[in-house]
Design a protein that fits this description.
Helix 6 packs parallel to helix 7. The protein is built from eleven helices and 17 strands. The chain is α/β, with parallel strands linked by helices. The strands form four sheets. A seven-stranded mixed sheet has the order 3-4-2-1-5-6-7, with helices on both faces. The chain has a five-stranded parallel sheet with strand order 8-9-10-11-12, with helices on both faces. The radius of gyration is 21 Å and the shape is globular. It folds into two domains: 115 residues, Rossmann fold; 250 residues, TIM Barrel.
Length: 380
């Protein structure tokens, strides 16, 4: 197999090393990267257009090595623009934890290096995430989903979650990467059934469960069995209230031999404005969260900001405008054209006008106080 690696960062270099050690039958011809240039080892790093100009049809596959949703989406879109070669996506955690994506015989381990599938009948959606609850056991200032903005927050019903998952599988031919999150997803009383159903519906997708970790050591045996049986990856974002528990969380996850990341997080940012006064296209092109697609209560939503704005309107009597068929889409309408839906969900939208990416305010993690206010989310 003659391949190129898209991504010349740490994950790409790890993949390069893994191939040289474990899969010597794979011939790496070059690296592709949107920003980097020069060489990795003896291999040249090309911008996408230059690479495909040089290797138009002389390539069997491209291996994607990136950990950000935005980057994965951009990579897949650029490859499909130039070539119909096979695309494999490195499991997000593999580069971080240096998990070998090859079997002992040198064959690809599909658990960690997955082929992305395409069809002329339905589009492929690289990624979406599912906020299964608005409840959270933290009160973070500047929460992207504004989980602490609404009093009496609720879980999304398991029936709604499963119904939405099945509809997405009808609309899209392949979804390589899915994240289950919240709020705090471990607070949902039906978390095990939700994870099992998602694995049944998406048998070979990468499914990640994102948590702040505070409840992990309190979860029962059946929860960990569910993670193992369904090949679920755990991502723990360890904020300050979790710091003194990180060792116990790490020990618990190791006990069950789970695939996981455990990150100590202190970085937060806010960039919402009260009025739609920003250049939408500029905000969209420079967004730090671009690529997130939220599957939430029967809708596919362009960005978590849309969910936050709706909560602001309810709690703070603001007048944020979010538009159907631009910022969000009812996935259960019977006449949906999935190709048009994907094109629209990937485009700049009205909500981008409420994001001031040039005056983003960065801060260390902090509580929002006894009651979150609009000032905890906005920069003006």
């Amino acid at each position: 197999m003659k391949i190129a690696i898209f991504g010349a960062g740490k994950a790409g270099k790890f993949l390069y090393e893994s191939i040289n050690i474990y899969a010597k039958d794979i011939d790496i011809v070059a690296f592709i990267d949107n920003k980097e240039s020069g060489k990795v080892g003896e291999l040249h790093v090309f911008k996408p257009d230059k690479f495909f100009e040089k290797y138009k049809s002389d390539i069997d596959a491209i291996f994607l090595a990136a950990g950000a949703q935005k980057t994965v989406k951009l990579m897949i879109d650029k490859i499909r623009k130039y070539s119909k070669c096979d695309i494999y996506m490195l499991h997000d955690i593999s580069g971080k934890n240096r998990i070998n994506p090859f079997l002992e015989n040198g064959q690809i381990n599909s658990r960690y290096l997955r082929k992305v599938r395409f069809s002329s009948e339905k589009p492929t959606l690289p990624y979406f995430e599912v906020p299964i609850t608005d409840k959270c056991n933290l009160n973070c200032k500047g929460c992207l989903f504004a989980c602490n903005a609404i009093k009496g927050s609720e879980h999304v019903s398991k029936e709604q979650i499963i119904k939405d998952a099945k509809r997405m599988a009808e609309l899209f031919y392949d979804v390589p990467w899915i994240r289950i999150l919240g709020g705090e997803p471990l607070m949902h009383p039906d978390i095990e059934e939700i994870l099992s159903e998602y694995r049944n519906i998406y048998p070979d997708s990468e499914i990640d469960l994102c948590t702040n970790g505070l409840l992990i050591t309190k979860m029962n045996e059946s929860f960990f069995k569910c993670l193992i049986d369904n090949n679920i990856t755990i991502h723990v974002s360890g904020y300050k209230p979790t710091y003194n528990q990180l060792d116990k969380i790490d020990e618990k996850l190791k006990e069950y031999k789970l695939v996981y990341t455990l990150l100590k997080r202190d970085d937060f940012a806010k960039y919402y404005t009260k009025q739609p006064t920003n250049d939408a296209k500029h905000s969209f092109e420079n967004c730090i969260a671009s690529g997130c697609r939220e599957l939430y209560r029967g809708r596919l939503i362009r960005c978590s900001a849309v969910i936050a704005f709706e909560k602001f309107n309810e709690q703070f009597n603001t007048s944020y405008i979010t538009k159907e068929n631009e910022d969000w889409f009812d996935i259960h309408k019977p006449d949906i054209n999935a190709f048009e839906l994907k094109e629209k969900i990937d485009a700049c939208s009205n909500a981008c006008k409420y994001c001031d990416v040039d005056n983003m305010e960065e801060f260390s993690w902090d509580y929002a106080g006894n009651e979150a206010g609009l000032k905890d989310y906005t920069v003006d």
